[in-house]
C-alpha cells in the first residue's frame, strides 16, 4: 500500500523526533550521573565543570528543551498537516527552526558547564542565547500558525489548540521572566528584584511545567492515543473543557512555590486556590484519555504502546493530585525543600512525560520510516517493566526520604531546640538517595533498549506501513 504520509512534509519531522530521542537519552544520563554524585560526592572529581551545580541545569535543559521541545515541535508540525490536510506553511522555515533549536541546545551544553548562568530555574541560559531562543520560537510560531491558517478543513482539531496554547503562553512568560540588563557578553542581571523576581520566576517556572510538560504533551497524546487505540476520543467535548480548564487556571498556580516566603499572603493564596481547582480539569482530561484507551480493552491487554500511554495517564493523575496537595500550607510545611518535592517532579517527568514520549517514539518512528512492526516485541516488554520499576523505585524512595527529612527538620524538644542536626537528616536519607540513583539507572537502561529496538526497526528491510500515523 502506498504510504499516505508522502503527501506531507515529514523529513523535518523525522529530524525533530530523532533529535528528541537523542536528547532524552543524553539528558537522562546526566540525571543519573547527578543522582550518583549525591550518593558518592567523590564523583565530582573536584572539577568545577562537572560538579552538581553546573550539571543540574544541563540535565533539566537537556530534558525539557532537548527531549520535550523537539518532540513537541516535530509532532505538532506533523499533526497540523495531518489534521488540516495541508503541507507545512514553509519548508525552509521548518529547517531554520530545527537547526536553530539544535544550536540553542549546543550553546547550552557549552555554556552551562562553564558557569555561565542566570541562576533562574529552567531559565539559566544567558541573554545572547535567550535572544536566539526568542527568534527561533517566533519562527516556530509563524510556521505552526501559518500551517493551521492554510488548512483545507474548517475544524481545528483539539490537539492543535493545546499546541497553540503552549506556543503562545511559553513565549509570553519566557520573555517577561528573562527581561534582563546585560553587564557583559555572557552576564546579565534581571530587571526584577526580591519578591517581584520570585513571583515572575515561578510564573515562568511552574508554567514551563504547565505548558511545555503538560499542555503540549496533552496535545500530542490527544492525537496519538486515538490512533494507537483505534478508537475516537471518548468525549471530544470533554477534551475542549480540559483545554479551557488548564488555560484558565494553570497560569495562576505558580505562586504555590512561594508559600511561607516574603511574597504577600494573598498572592500565595491565589496559587493555593488555583492549584486545588486544577484537580478538576486535570482529572477530567485524564479520564477522557483513559476511556479512549479502554474502548479497545482487547488490544490494551497485549499492546505495550497502549500500556505505556495508560501508565502515563495514571502518573498524570498522581502528579496532578500530589501537586495541589503539596500546595496546601500544612502539607507544604513538611514537604517543602525536601526530597519529596524531587520525587513529585520526577514521578510527573518520568511517569507522565517520559512514558508519553516513549509511547510516541514506539508508535510514530516505525510509521515515519514506513515500517509495519517493531523489530522486537520482547524488548518493548523488557523496556516497559524496566521503566516502571525505575519510576516506582525513584519516586517511592524520595517520598520516604522527603517525609522523614521534613519531620526531622521540624522536630523540636520541649525547650524548642531542634531534635536532629542537618547531618543526621542527611544520614537518614542517604540509602534512599542510592535507590534514587538505582531507579534512574533502570529507567535509562530502558531507553537504551528502546533506541536499539527502534534502530533495528528502521534499518530492517523496507515494509510500507499499512496504517497511517
TrEMBL record:
Heme b 2; high-spin binds at residue 344. Cu cation binds at residues 206, 256-257. It is found in: Cell membrane. It comes from the Bacteria. GO terms for cellular component: plasma membrane. Its EC number is 7.1.1.9. Its main location: membrane. This is cytochrome-c oxidase.
Amino acid at each position: 500500500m502506498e504510504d499516505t504520509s508522502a503527501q506531507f512534509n515529514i523529513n523535518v519531522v523525522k529530524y525533530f523526533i530523532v533529535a528528541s530521542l537523542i536528547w532524552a537519552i543524553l539528558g537522562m544520563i546526566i540525571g543519573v550521573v547527578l543522582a550518583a554524585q549525591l550518593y558518592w560526592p567523590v564523583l565530582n572529581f573536584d572539577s568545577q565543570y562537572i560538579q552538581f551545580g553546573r550539571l543540574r541545569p544541563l540535565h533539566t535543559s537537556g530534558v525539557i528543551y532537548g527531549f520535550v521541545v523537539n518532540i513537541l515541535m516535530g509532532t505538532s508540525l506533523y499533526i497540523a498537516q495531518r489534521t488540516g490536510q495541508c503541507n507545512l506553511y514553509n519548508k525552509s522555515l521548518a529547517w531554520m527552526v530545527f537547526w536553530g533549536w539544535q544550536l540553542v541546545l549546543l550553546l547550552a551544553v557549552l555554556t552551562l558547564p562553564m558557569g555561565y548562568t542566570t541562576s533562574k530555574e529552567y531559565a539559566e541560559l544567558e541573554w545572547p542565547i535567550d535572544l536566539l531562543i526568542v527568534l527561533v520560537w517566533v519562527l516556530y510560531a509563524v510556521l505552526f500558525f501559518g500551517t493551521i491558517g492554510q488548512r483545507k478543513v474548517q475544524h481545528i482539531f483539539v490537539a492543535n489548540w493545546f499546541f497553540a496554547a503552549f506556543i503562545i503562553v511559553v513565549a509570553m512568560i519566557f520573555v517577561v521572566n528573562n527581561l534582563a540588563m546585560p553587564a557583559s557578553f555572557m552576564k546579565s542581571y534581571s530587571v526584577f528584584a526580591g519578591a517581584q523576581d520570585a513571583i515572575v520566576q515561578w510564573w515562568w517556572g511552574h508554567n514551563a511545567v504547565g505548558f511545555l510538560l503538560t499542555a503540549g504533551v496533552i496535545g500530542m497524546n490527544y492525537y496519538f492515543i486515538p490512533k494507537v487505540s483505534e478508537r475516537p476520543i471518548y468525549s471530544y467535548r470533554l477534551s475542549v473543557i480540559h483545554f479551557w480548564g488548564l488555560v484558565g487556571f494553570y497560569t495562576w498556580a505558580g505562586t504555590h512555590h512561594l508559600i511561607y516566603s516574603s511574597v504577600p499572603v494573598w498572592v500565595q493564596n491565589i496559587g493555593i486556590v488555583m492549584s486545588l481547582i486544577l484537580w478538576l480539569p486535570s482529572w477530567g482530561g485524564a479520564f477522557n484519555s483513559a476511556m479512549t484507551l479502554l474502548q479497545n480493552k482487547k488490544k490494551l491487554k497485549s499492546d505495550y504502546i497502549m500500556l505505556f500511554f495508560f501508565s502515563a495517564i495514571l502518573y498524570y493523575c498522581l502528579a496532578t493530585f500530589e501537586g495541589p496537595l503539596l500546595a496546601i500550607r500544612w502539607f507544604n510545611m513538611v514537604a517543602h525543600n525536601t526530597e519529596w518535592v524531587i520525587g513529585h517532579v520526577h514521578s510527573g517527568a518520568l511517569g507522565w512525560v517520559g512514558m508519553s514520549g516513549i509511547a510516541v517514539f514506539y508508535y510514530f518512528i516505525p510509521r515515519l520510516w514506513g515500517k509495519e512492526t517493531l523489530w522486537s516485541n520482547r524488548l518493548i516488554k523488557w523496556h516497559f517493566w524496566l521503566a516502571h520499576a525505575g519510576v516506582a523505585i525513584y519516586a517511592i524512595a524520595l517520598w520516604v526520604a522527603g517525609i522523614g527529612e521534613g519531620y526531622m527538620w521540624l522536630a523540636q524538644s520541649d525547650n524548642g531546640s531542634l531534635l536532629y542536626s542537618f547531618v543526621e537528616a542527611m544520614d537518614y536519607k542517604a540509602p534512599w538517595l542510592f535507590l534514587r540513583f538505582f531507579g534512574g539507572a533502570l529507567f535509562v537502561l530502558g531507553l537504551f533498549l528502546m533506541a536499539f529496538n527502534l534502530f533495528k526497526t528502521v534499518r530492517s528491510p523496507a515494509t510500507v506501513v499499512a496504517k497511517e500515523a
